[in-house]
Amino acid sequence: MASLAPSKSFAEAIKDRRTYYALSNESTIPDARIEEIVKDAILHTPSAFNSQTSRAVVLLGEEHVKMWDITVEVYKQQLPEEKFNRANQRFQGFRAGYGTILFYEDTDVVREFQDKFKTYEDKFPGWSEQTNGMHQFVIWTALEAEGLGVNLQHYNPLIDVRLETEFKVPPTWNLKAQMVFGKPTAGPAVANKEFKPVEERMKVFGAK
User: Fold this and answer.
1) Disulfide check for 47: which of 2, 40, 131, 172 has CB 3.0–4.6 Å away?
2) d(C-alpha 98, C-alpha 24), whole Å
3) d(CA 78, CA 72)
4) What is the pLDDT of residue 188?
5) Does residue 104 contact residue 24 with C-beta atoms inside 8 Å?
6) What is the pLDDT of residue 137?
């Protein structure tokens, strides 16, 4: 499995991860390294009962631009002009990045495990969401450790059908999120993140 950028530990990479909206259409690493990060996440991120339900579509360069052009077209048809104009400012910011990773869950595999383990049938959809979130976090953290800026978007389900057609996505794959990345041109969206007291969010028993 590929390692994080050599200058960062895993804990440091977690602490440094932030949302970046100001991105350029440049990358700090080769495309092959981006593919390697996503492949490693798909292979090694855990899932309930080793169900391996998560899927990813990596869009780089012109394919990334095409994806956001599709999003603009779809939302222009759906929103009143004033709302679309505001949304389009965000879309153009995402379009200006280097790439987008589409995160999916394979509903056929989820149903397969629901049928196989009837005791937990009602739990597998939730577990599927959890594993997808873990994939997003792993890839986000790894990309940022390589010097890339990242943000996460959710413009599904309006764009689902168009993306299925354009990128030959199986109809059983359910879109969950769109991760935009590129070389940062400004600092993170929140420079000084505020934290709720950890004592209110964590309990420890039996520590020595």
Assistant:
1) 131
2) 6
3) 10
4) 95
5) no
6) 98
Q: Does pLDDT of 27 surpass 70? A: yes
CA distance 101 to 147: 17
Could you tell me the CA-to-CA distances from 189 to 19, 64, 203 in Å, in that order? 6, 22, 30
Q: Helix %, strand %, coil % for the chain, to 5? A: 50, 15, 35
pLDDT at 6: 58
| pLDDT of the residue at 107 | 98
136 closest CA partner among 55, 36, 70: 55
The two structure tokens encoding residue 187: 């600092």
The pTM of this model reads: 0.95
* Structure letter (DSSP) for residue 4: P
Flag whether pLDDT at 2 surpasses 90.
no
Burial of 199 (0-12, 13-18, 19+ CB in 10 A): exposed
